[in-house]
């Protein structure tokens, strides 16, 4: 509905004028969950922003992917491996590396247990 879009934009303008935090719609992306694609596209046209797709990255971590698929974890494992290699050369002894690896592996297991709930 056209009126709802106008109200939303006015609300964002009021928020900007009060707090000084303005939303840059040119840098914004609209994502939908269980919403018709046509509605998302028409809303993005009215808001003058882009349409995004899942999965997305937030703070460097993927959101919206399937946690049980291997390809979801490959970029994360690659990033951790790269950082571990740098740390290994600079700081960690053999025992320290082993403790860190055990900690990371047990944390991933705990995360997967709680992420499915």
TrEMBL record:
<protein>
    <recommendedName>
        <fullName>Cysteine-rich receptor-like protein kinase</fullName>
    </recommendedName>
</protein>
């Amino acid at each position: 509905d056209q009126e709802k879009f106008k109200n939303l934009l006015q609300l964002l303008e009021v928020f900007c004028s009060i707090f000084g935090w303005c939303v840059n719609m040119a840098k914004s992306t609209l994502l939908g969950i269980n919403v018709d694609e046509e509605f998302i596209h028409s809303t993005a046209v009215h808001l003058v922003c882009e349409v995004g797709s899942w999965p997305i990255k937030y703070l460097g971590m993927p959101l919206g992917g399937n946690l049980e698929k291997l390809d979801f974890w490959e970029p994360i494992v690659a990033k951790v491996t790269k950082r571990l290699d740098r740390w290994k050369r600079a700081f960690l002894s053999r025992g320290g590396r082993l403790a860190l690896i055990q900690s990371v592996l047990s944390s991933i297991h705990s995360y997967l247990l709680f992420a499915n709930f």
